[in-house]
Write a structure and sequence with these properties.
8 helices, Aminopeptidase, elongated, single chain, alpha/beta
C-alpha cells in the first residue's frame, strides 16, 4: 500500500427482500403502531373492568313524558322566556320533593336585571364538610327550538335518578348526593359567568364545599345503529371508536382520567348499553361543551355523559330536535348506568 493511500471500504452487503421488509416492519412499529397504541391507552382507557347487571329499573315511558312536557308544553324555554324557565324550575323542585329529596333553590340575578333559578335535590348526609357527588343537567334551550335531546333528555334523566335514589334507605348513604338542574347553558350565556352551573360551581368553591365528582348529563337520548351515523372531531378517532352511534360516551379532559375510568367501570355491564370513554385535551372540539367546564374552572373533578351531541344527532339546535326522535329504551339504560356511578361512590353495600 502506498503511503497516504486509504484502504478501500468493503462493499456493503445488499439486503434481501425479506430483510428489507423486516426493516420496514420495525420502522412502522416504532414510528406508527406504538404511538397509536399509546394514544389509544391514554385517550380511550381500555379496561376489562365491568359492573354486574344492575337491579335498578327506569320506565322509558316516564322519560318520554318528561321530555314531551319540556319540549312541547314548555316551549320556548330559552333565556328570553323567563316565565317558562321559572315554571320549569318550580316543576323540578316539586319533583325533587316528591321523590324524597331535600329541595333547595338558588336564585341569582345576571347583569342585575332578571332572576334565574338553580334547583337542587339532596340525598344522604347533611354534613357540608363531606365531599358530595353532583349530577346535573341544564333545562334551557338554544333559541326557541324544542330541545328534546338538548337537553330535555338530561333533565328527564335527573328526575328519574331522584326517583331511584329516593327508594334507598337514607342510612345507606355515606356521602351526600346533589342532583341539580341549571338554566342558561346555551348561547348567548355559554362560557359566561351567567351560566347557572358557573354560579353553582363558584358558590361551592367560595364556601369551601368539597366535591368528590361532578357528572354532567348532556344529551343522552339519541342513538342510531346505522353504519356511519357517528362522527368525531378528528379523523384519527375513527380508528378507536365505533362508526355506529349506538353507545354512550363518558368524556373529560386529561386531568379527569381517573374519574372517567371510574364512571366507565360502573356503567359497563350494568345494562346492555355499550360504553365508550375519551380523555382528551380541553382544546378538542366538544370536550368542554357543557356545564362541567365550570367545575373544571373551579378545580373540581368533573365528567360529561353524553350521546355525543352534534357528532351524532344532526337535529342539534334545530326545530327537528323533537321527542319522537329519541330512543327511550336506551336512554333508560343510560340513566341506570349513571345511577350505578352514583351508588358506587356514595352508597354502602
Amino acid at each position: 500500500m502506498k503511503f497516504g493511500s486509504l484502504p478501500r471500504p468493503h462493499p456493503r452487503p445488499k439486503l434481501t427482500l425479506k430483510q428489507r421488509l423486516r426493516a420496514w416492519a420495525i420502522a412502522l412499529l416504532v414510528f406508527l403502531v406504538i404511538p397509536l397504541f399509546v394514544v389509544w391507552l391514554i385517550v380511550c382507557q381500555p379496561s376489562l373492568k365491568r359492573n354486574s347487571p344492575s337491579n335498578a329499573r327506569v320506565d322509558p315511558a316516564h322519560l318520554e313524558a318528561t321530555v314531551r312536557r319540556l319540549s312541547i308544553d314548555r316551549v320556548p324555554r330559552d333565556f328570553a322566556h323567563r316565565d317558562n324557565l321559572a315554571r320549569i324550575a318550580d316543576e323540578i323542585e316539586a319533583a325533587f320533593a316528591e321523590s324524597g329529596a331535600r329541595p333547595r333553590r338558588h336564585t341569582y340575578r345576571h347583569t342585575g336585571l332578571y332572576q334565574f333559578h338553580n334547583i337542587s335535590g339532596f340525598f344522604g348526609p347533611e354534613d357540608e364538610t363531606l365531599p358530595r357527588v353532583i349530577v346535573g343537567a341544564h333545562y334551557d334551550t338554544y333559541d326557541e327550538f324544542p330541545g328534546a335531546d338538548d337537553n330535555a333528555s338530561g333533565v328527564a334523566g335527573i328526575l328519574e335518578l331522584a326517583t331511584l335514589l329516593g327508594k334507598l334507605e337514607p342510612s345507606r348513604f355515606v356521602l351526600p348526593v346533589e342532583l341539580v338542574c341549571w338554566p342558561l347553558e346555551e348561547p348567548p350565556y355559554f362560557r359566561s359567568d351567567g351560566m347557572g352551573s358557573a354560579v353553582h360551581a363558584a358558590s361551592l368553591r367560595e364556601n369551601g364545599v368539597p366535591v368528590r365528582l361532578m357528572v354532567c348529563l348532556e344529551m343522552i337520548g339519541y342513538f342510531s345503529d346505522t353504519f356511519g351515523s357517528q362522527s368525531y372531531p378528528m379523523p384519527l378517532l375513527h380508528l378507536y371508536y365505533p362508526e355506529r352511534g349506538n353507545f354512550v360516551a363518558v368524556a373529560g379532559d386529561l386531568h379527569n382520567r381517573e374519574s372517567i375510568a371510574l364512571a366507565k367501570a360502573a356503567m359497563k355491564g350494568a345494562t346492555p348499553m355499550p360504553v365508550c370513554s375519551i380523555a382528551a385535551p380541553r382544546n378538542l372540539p366538544g370536550i368542554d361543551f357543557s356545564d362541567h367546564l365550570n367545575f373544571w374552572d373551579q378545580g373540581y373533578p368533573a365528567i360529561m355523559i353524553t350521546d355525543t351531541a352534534f357528532y351524532r344527532n344532526d337535529r342539534y339546535h334545530t326545530e327537528r330536535d323533537t321527542p319522537d326522535t329519541l330512543d327511550y329504551e336506551r336512554m333508560a339504560q343510560v340513566v341506570v348506568g349513571v345511577y350505578e356511578v352514583i351508588r358506587s361512590l356514595t352508597v354502602a353495600n
